[in-house]
Amino acid sequence: MKELNDRFANYIEKIRSLEKQNQTLKMEIEHARYDKKNEDYLLSEKESSIFSENETLKIDNSILNQKIKELQIRLTNESNGRREAEERITNLLESTSSEFLSLQQKYNQQTEMISNLKKLIQINKK
Fold first, then answer.
1. Helix residue ranges, H only, the chain
2. Pick from 36, 58, 80, 115: CA 20 to 30 A from residue 73's CA?
3. Alpha-carbon span 43 to 126, nearest angstrom
4. Pfam families from the xrefs (predicted)?
C-alpha cells in the first residue's frame, strides 16, 4: 500500500508539474499573441504613416512640377523679351550711327562753309 501511495504521490506531483508547465506555456502563448497583435498594430500604423507620407510627397511633387512649368514659361517669356529688347537696341544703335554720320557730314560742311566765309571776309577787308 505504501508503494501505491508513493506512486500515487509521484503521479500527483507529476500532474502538478505538468499543470505548472501548462500555465507557463499558456502565458507564453498569450504574450506571443499580444506581441503579434501589437506588432501588427505597429506595422499597420507604420504602413498608414508611409502611405500618408507618400500621398503628401505626390502632392508636393505635383506642386513642384507645376512651379517648374510656370518657371519655364516665365523663362521663355523673359528670353523673348530680352531678344526683342536686344533687337530694339541694335536698331537704335544703327539708327543713331546713321544720324551721327549725317550730322557729322553736315558739321563738316558747315565748318568748311564758315572757313570759306572767313576767307572771303578777309579778302574783302583787304
1. 2-125
2. 58
3. 119
4. Filament
At residue 82, what is the residue type?
Answer: R
How far apart (Å, rounded) are the C-alpha atoms in residues 15 and 17?
5
**CA dist 77 to 73, 84, 86, 125, Å?**
6, 11, 14, 70
First to last CA, the chain: 179
State how far the Cα of 5 lies from the Cα of 3, in Å rounded to an integer.
5
